[in-house]
Amino acid sequence: ALMLAYSPGQICESRLKPANANLELPVRAAFVILVRNSELHELRATVRQLEDQFNSRHHYPYVFLNDEPFTDEFKQAMEWATSGDCHFGLIPYEHWSMPPWVDRVRAKWAMAMMGSQVPYGDSESYRKMYESGFFFQHPLLADLDYYWRVEPGVEFSCYIPYDPFKFMADNNKMYGFTISLREFPVTVRTLWKTTSAFRAAYPEYTVPNNTLQWLTTPNGGYNMCHFWSNFEIASLDFFRSPQYTAYFDFLDRAGGFFLERWGDAPVHSLAVAMFLNKSQVHYFDIGYYHSPFQNCPTDPQFNAEHCFCNPNRSMIFNDDSCTNSWLDL
Ligand code: GDP
Ligand code: MN
């Protein structure tokens, strides 16, 4: 049964893959991965870990998204590395370009000024804001209720003994994170102000028992805390909601994705804080590493039996983590 039926030039099924067409998944969910062809090997390492720690027992599908067509080499490698169905999507140009109302000269100037101050300060591609406003609109996600964001190069450093998607569905969770930290202030100078303007324009969208206090300084500003969105397990209904889409459109019109460098992490986090209550958000204590930070479960027995990470290095012990203040809310 483990025979490889490979003929050159043809995309073929992985040796790990069961007859997925007949698979009954408990939740309509998938891994969603924005990735370049050139990141094939970093992603292969990541996906093999994800399979070993979790998905080889569940066979959730994968959606790979790219602003350029995936190569046959990339598709073949992913088919072989995964135990779930693979779907390869192209991002439409309108979702990957500077909107016409942004002043290109000012944007270029802002990028030059930010240049060497912060990571990606002078990067236009970093500002495409695909993860802020567009990924959930891709047709390949239309039939899904939940997604798990994965990036090339990340590591899953512990066995995952339960199904996080099913956990989300069974417990009415809308958003799950594993690492939180603080943003570089220069990238979000007017994000808080713009968000306050949004709240004033749409007062009905901020829920009464919101968690904005988690993000607020004693004098009412933004404390730079955010969920690190390179790991995210979330409900797609959250992103597709009128609240979230109105918020993204408001921010997009304000131009700060390009004139500053608003990242999808603070944007998602502010939306979570406004639109959800605490019980709808879950801290997943999953073994996870994205350079330079990691979450490493600290329970001695669990760590010893199931992990290959050092619990003393877990972000939870870093002063820049906002997870303890989240849990204390
Ligand atoms: P960082 O985590 O903030 O340092 O940024 P990354 O370099 O990890 O980029 C975030 C995600 O977007 C990763 O999944 C990348 O593979 C993906 N990504 C970034 N730029 C591009 C691009 O130009 N094209 C494609 N297809 N993916 C990209
Ligand atoms: Mn990354």
From TrEMBL:
Belongs to the glycosyltransferase 15 family. The active site is at E232. This is Alpha 1,2-mannosyltransferase 2.4.1. One of its GO terms (cellular component) is Golgi apparatus. One of its GO terms (biological process) is cell wall mannoprotein biosynthetic process. The gene is KRE2_2. Pfam families: Glyco_transf_15. InterPro entries: Glyco_trans_15, Nucleotide-diphossugar_trans. GO terms for molecular function: alpha-1,2-mannosyltransferase activity. PANTHER family: ALPHA-1,2 MANNOSYLTRANSFERASE KTR1. Keywords: Membrane, Transferase, Transmembrane, Transmembrane helix. It comes from Coemansia asiatica.
